[in-house]
Design goal:
- The chain starts with a helix and ends with a helix.
- The protein has a single domain, classed as Hydantoin permease.
- The longest helix is centred in the first third of the chain and has 34 residues.
- By secondary structure, it is mainly alpha-helical.
- Helix content is about 75%, strand content about 0%.
- It has 21 helices and no strands.
- Helix 3 packs parallel to helix 13 and helix 7 runs antiparallel to helix 15.
- This is Purine-cytosine permease.
- Keywords: Membrane, Transmembrane, Transmembrane helix, Transport.
- Pfam families: Transp_cyt_pur.
- One of its GO terms (cellular component) is plasma membrane.
Length: about 475
Amino acid sequence: MWIRTFKGESLVKRDKETNLSIPLEQRRTSAWDMFATWVGANANNGTWYIGGVLAACGFALAIKVLLFSSVLSYIFLSLVGFIGYKTGVSTMGISRASFGIRGSYLPSLVNFTQFIGWTAVNTFIAATSVSYLLHDLWGWPLYGHAGGARGMFIGIVVMSILHIISIASGSRSVQLIERVGIVLVFIFVIWESIVVFQTVSLQQISAWQVPAGLKMNSGVAVDTVAAFNLAWVTAGADFTRFTAKKSSATAMPFLGALLGVLWFAFIGLIATISIAIATGAYDPNNSDPSTIASKLGLGLLALVVIILTSMTANAVNLMAAGSALSNIFPRLSLKASLWIVAALATLVTFVPMILGSFLTAFIVFLDYIGMVLGPIISVIIVDFYCRSQRQYQVAELTIRGGKYWYHFGVNWFAILAWACGAALFFLLRQLTFLSTTIGATFIDMVFSGVIYYGLMKLWERRRKQKNAD
């Protein structure tokens, strides 16, 4: 699903001296490639887990929230995708126009931290599978039971080594892992669906009631799904910059990502509810694919597939984090950056063990994404569509002292709008009305965009007055 990205690596390196833009005649990604890329983007452990988390809403509400929040999130993906098509520039390159050439380090830092976080999420889920393998093969205690931490520790170390190997082997081996992994994932979800519906019916699943005290409010669920989906938006232009057609950059990412998240989250949702029905007990902490696969009796093969999907997702997560780190520290080589982010991701993976709950750590991580990513996306979109009338001077994106240099390379109004949006998100989350209805994320994104637009209009007006005087 990431093949086109690696094919474009040489283009990206070559175009560092030509304003980071991919010329139209050099773009080779087809509409089908783009659609498959974004379906595959959501074919991973994290999407299954999101579906399991949404089980706390009940089946009907979970489906409504998943559809509502995903559609809105991927509209932003299409908007960013069009900017990538229009300019031929990556998302972090595009952010230079609004945040400033040096100010774009802020979005890069956010991207760096979120990809580290997603690496840790996938690693922890895969490490859980390793611990189940150790339990099934040699009787080691499972995580959560006495002595179970040993299996998780071994699992995290094993997965971290596998991730480093997948990166060190280069893009060709990553492509092979991606191709094999996607096929196995599709087979696995079909297999899991068959097993689920052999156990319980869709009518039983839809009629299941969440136990008192464990129910998740709709607004919280909307924010959870939005944070999961918005994480992809900041990578949108990284792919659409390789497309030569507008529809490939807008419609295909939207349709592909939406299909992927609805399909895989649905599997996680029904599997988690089916376990609750079959066992008579519901525990949201047991929503991870490994626990579900074990309780459904899918065997060792399912656990191996889950481990493999972690490798496919994290090979790219680590490369993206390494690239972001190199963008912040240009003198740091990509190879050195990859070793640094791999080490950091391994350390972060132990955080859920310290907190005692993966679900708690995961929700905190999603809250962080919602707080910092939403305002960044709003600033980028408002700057391009509202302030610049869908036209950027791409040649200026790398020029010191040029149009996008602002004040010593930083547009402080964009930084201020982002900071206000991040603070506002925290405040909006405290409102009961929003937590029980549509959540805070999308409201916060609107306010962040309005704040940025207003600040820039005020700045432009004062600049014109100064020039007139």
